[in-house]
Amino acid sequence: MALPLVGLHAMAFVQFSGVTYHDPTLAHASFVLYTAADGVTRLIDLTGVVRHEWPHPGVPARIIDPALNDGRIGDVGLQLSQVVDSPGGIYSNRTVGQLSWDGDTLWEWGTEAPGGAARQNHDWQLLDNGNRLLLVALPRVVDSLGPQVVGDQGIYEVTPDGRIVWEWKAGDHLDEFGFTSEGLEHLRRTVAREPDNIWGYLEINSANTLGPNRWHRADPDTVFQPDNILISSRKANTIALIDRRSGAIVWRLGPYFDEPAGAQHKRINSHSLPRPLDQISGQHNPHFIADGLPGAGNLLVFDNQGGAGYPPAPLGIYAGSRVLEIDPETREIVWQYTAEDSGRPPWTFFSSFVSNAQRVPNGNTLITEGMQGRIFQVTPSGQVVWEYLTPYEDYAVAGEPEVKIPAVAGVDRRTLTRLIYRSQAVPFEWVPEDTPRSLDPVDRRTP
User: Fold this and answer.
1) pLDDT digits (tens, 9 = 90+) for 341-397
2) Which of these, 126, 219, 235, 145, lies nearest to 185 by C-alpha position?
3) Contact 274, 194 (CB under 8 A)
4) Tens digits of residue pLDDT in 265-285
5) Label partner for 114 (CA 20 to 30 A): which of 26, 166, 243, 266?
6) Residue-range domain boundaries for the chain
7) For residue 217, what is the enclosing H or E element?
8) Is the entire prediction scored with pTM above 0.70?
9) 206: which strand partners?
């Protein structure tokens, strides 16, 4: 059956919707969870059929590992309510919570937070001890940036009964982000020009503990302690590791790299691996690949190659994103995916913001090309073995409280979007066993 064409307004970006290709002999079998632009979180199978949904967004939505959830299956973490009079964006979230498979609220937090709202954005994590890490927005004065209120960000560790037992504020650690004096002055000027910068001057888009890893097993005194927190500052082009005991940044990649301006296109076409990490820009969701998965202990990151940096990083003309697997000790790229690995020009795989990558058990990588509303799975050699284009779209306007997804930076008029922030490959055993699934092959690619 042919897939419906989307409206003419979007045909330049996405011609079809649903699953365009599925090779069940090569693709890792799972469900896939994501929040669509209409604010609904859906669980699909690999033929694109919606098998379950919740009428709430998640930033990101995530089915919870039953091993961390007293064996419960099918529970999901989402944003449950918005601040009605909020200007939108990262300040708009009032509460976050955990819902059951049937939609019952099992946990909710936010109204008891400082300021009366969670303002959770970009990331969260359920910890082994039952507490939650929440990445939050903090409108406040950061003395080193001037007297104006800025969109700072922080991390809370929240107990099941709602108490904040650990917190960290980015603005208290600016001198640890590696800015040059020129870069810090550029940041100050940027903040001064944008006093209502609700998107955050760093725009930290991930915060997760490293988890058990081979570096710690080999050296108990390593900086790669399992409970240290890895963060990503999209606007600063920095991946940094926070020491849980001191709060200090003890390891980082970026913000600056030694390479000539305009080197991006040559770099993306290079296949000599391993090689030193070069300029990342606008990156999302760096995390250590978990024990038991191919590449365990390496850092996996979606390098958007979108404009970012203080001052802006030098980028090439032929924009293309890439997924990088990095050895955190040698700081070398040991695997990468770009569009060329699928035989396509670099610009055919590009998302200047949002997006993520996830290693799956058979060694493939699930990739969310979020700006395009595309989720796909590639083999280590770059072969696309599953591809899905979301059919769900809605209007988004930066700064409007009714926006169903995080407002899109730089968008100030009503625009249709199919934006996906992140997706998650969900093991079959994490949801009720009677949930239907299909693993049939699909090939709806155009010649």
Assistant:
1) 999 999 999 999 999 999 999 999 999 999 999 999 999 999 999 999 999 998 764
2) 145
3) no
4) 666 766 689 999 999 999 999
5) 243
6) 8-432
7) helix 214-218
8) yes
9) 232
27-31, 83-87, 228-232: lowest mean pLDDT where? 83-87
Distance of CA 10 to the CA centre of its chain: 24
Above 60 in pLDDT, residue 142?
Answer: yes
Residue 181: which H helix or E strand, with range? helix 181-193
Give the SS3 label for residue 340.
helix
Q: Cβ neighbours of residue 143 under 8 Å, at least 6 residues apart? A: none
d(CA 99, CA 106): 6
154/380 Cα distance (integer angstroms): 35
Pairing of β 105-109 and β 93-99: antiparallel
Contact at 8 Å (CB) between 114 and 154?
A: no
- Supply the pLDDT for residue 412: 59
* Whole-angstrom distance, CA of residue 260 vs CA of residue 435: 52
Q: Output the six-digit token pair for 423.
A: 């997706």
- Rounded CA separation 232/209 (Å): 12
Spell out the residues 6+ positions from residue 295 whose beta carbon is closer than 8 angstroms to its own: 289, 325, 334, 335, 359, 363
Domain 8-432 top-level CATH class: mainly beta
Average pLDDT, stretch 48-61?
96
Beta bridge partners of 214: none
